[in-house]
C-alpha cells in the first residue's frame, strides 16, 4: 500500500480542526474529502482507519451509549451523513487465512455482546454456537441498529445472513428490546414487521431455518416462510393463525398473497432483499415492484402522493444484500433509500459517495466508446472468499464427466457441486457418474419442492457425493461441507462465476474451484481471471493427482 503524503493525511487525519469550521465550510470540506477519498481508494486500494489516522470506535462499543454519536468517530455514527468514507482499522488480510481471521481482525467486535444487542438475543446466539461476529457482521449490525438503509456487500460465505438477521431480531419478536407482551401491543402483532425476500425457495427456506435456530424452539412461529411451490392456502391459514412478525419468501409468492389482501405489510419496519442484484433483475420485475410499493407503506400515507411510489422515501428500513453489487443496485438503493450506506467487511461508506469506478468496482466500460448503456456488471476479488483455490482444465466435451470423476478422486473431495448450464444435461451426467460408482444426484427447478428438499438433505448429510445442478443452486446455498465446485460448463460471466465458486470455502474453510472447458474456450477463463483479479492456473489430473500445467501469469490482486 503506497504511503500518503503528509498533507493528504492532514486532510483526513484526527488533527484536522473540523469542529472549528462553519457549516458551509464543513460541507465543502466533506465533499472535497469524499472526492479525495474515492480517488485514493481507486489509486491505492481500500481505505483503512490506520492509513487515515483514525481509531475505530467499534473496538469498544459502549452498550449504553449506542444512541449518542460522537464527533468524528465510527463511520456509522455520523450525525452529518454527508461525511466522508472511513474504513476500518487494520489492513485487509493478504493471502489465505483460516477462519476469516475473526479473532485477529482488529475491526471485528470480539463478541456479539459488544454490539449493543439485547441480552436474550446474545444468549440465544451463544447457545447456537455464535460467539464471535464475522467482520461484515460487526460492521453491519451497528449500522442497521442506527436505522440506516444499507447495501451489504461481502464475499460469499462471510455471514451476511446473520448480519441482517441479528439486528432485526434485536428489534422484532420476543428476543428484541421491546417484546410486545401487553394487550395493547397484541393488536400490532397482526402486522408483519419484517419481510425478507430471496430469489429461490431453497434460499428462502435456508433463511427461515437460520431465523428459527436463533429464535429457539418455543418461538419458531414468529417467522413464517412464503415460498413458491408450497400450498398457498395453507400458507395463508398459517399467517392468520400464527400472526408471524417476520416472513421470508420468494418474490412471486409474497406478491401473490399480498395482492390477494392476505398479507398486511404496510406497517412493516424492515425489508430485506437478499441477493439483491438477482432480485432486481428482469425476471422478478413485476413482483418486486409490488413488494417495494407495499411493504412498509403506512396506510395513512398521502393517497395523492406522487405517481411513482418508488420515488417516495419509504418509512421502512431497506437492507440489500449480495456478494456482487453492480452499480445499478447502488443507483436503485440511492433512489429509494434513507441516507443509505454501503457496508463491507471493514468499511461503511455513504452510497452517495460510491462511484461506478469506486469501491464496488463492478461496472466498467469495456471499451473507450462505452456509454452507460453498455456498462458491464462484473464481480471483483471482493466477492470471493480468500481461502479458495481456482484452476481450469482443458478437456473435450465428451470427456467432461470422466474428468470430473478424476478430479473428485485427485482432490479426495467429499462433497462436490458440479454446475451445468442446461437442465437437460444434468440427468445424463448423473447417470454416467453413478455408472462409475459415484453417488450423484441432480437438482434443478423442474423438480417439485419436496424432491428438491429431499435431494438437498441427502447432499448435506453426505448420502450424495456429487450434486449436479444448474444456476438454481449458485446463490446463497450454504453447505459447509462442500469442498469442491466444478464448472462443467462455463458460467456466463464473472458474477455467475463468483456465486458458483462461493458454494465452497464457506466461512474461511478450504475450497477448490475447477472450471472445465474446451480449448477454444480458454480465452473466457483468462477473461474471468482478469476481471476477478485471481490466478486461475491450468491443471490436469494424472495418477490421482492435480498437476498444475501452466502457472497463472496474472498477479494476485488481494
Ligand atoms: N458469527 C458466526 N460464527 C459462526 N458461524 C457463522 C457466523 N456467522 C455466520 N456463520 C455461518 O457461516 C455460514 C455462512 O453464512 P451465510 O450463509 O450467511 O453467508 P453469506 O455471506 O450470506 O453467503 P452467500 O453470499 O453465499 O449467500 C453459515 O453456515 C452460518 O451459519
UniProtKB/TrEMBL annotation:
Stretches assigned to the Helicase ATP-binding domain: 141-343
Bias kind Polar residues: ranges: 63-74
Keyword Protein transport in the entry? The reply is no
Which is an annotated GO molecular function term of this record? ATP binding
What keywords would UniProt list here? ATP-binding, Helicase, Hydrolase, Nucleotide-binding
Question: Record's CDD domains?
Answer: DEADc, SF2_C_DEAD
The enzyme's main class, written as a single word, is hydrolase
InterPro entries attached to this UniProt entry: DEAD/DEAH_box_helicase_dom, DEAD/DEAH_RhlB, DEAD_box_RNA_helicases, Helicase_ATP-bd, Helicase_C-like, P-loop_NTPase, RNA_helicase_DEAD_Q_motif
The record ties this protein, via Pfam families, to:
DEAD, Helicase_C
Q: Where is the DEAD-box RNA helicase Q domain?
A: 110-138
Ranges where the record places region Disordered:
60-82
Helicase C-terminal domain residues: 403-547
Protein name per the record: RNA helicase
Species name for this entry?
Answer: Quercus rubra (Northern red oak)
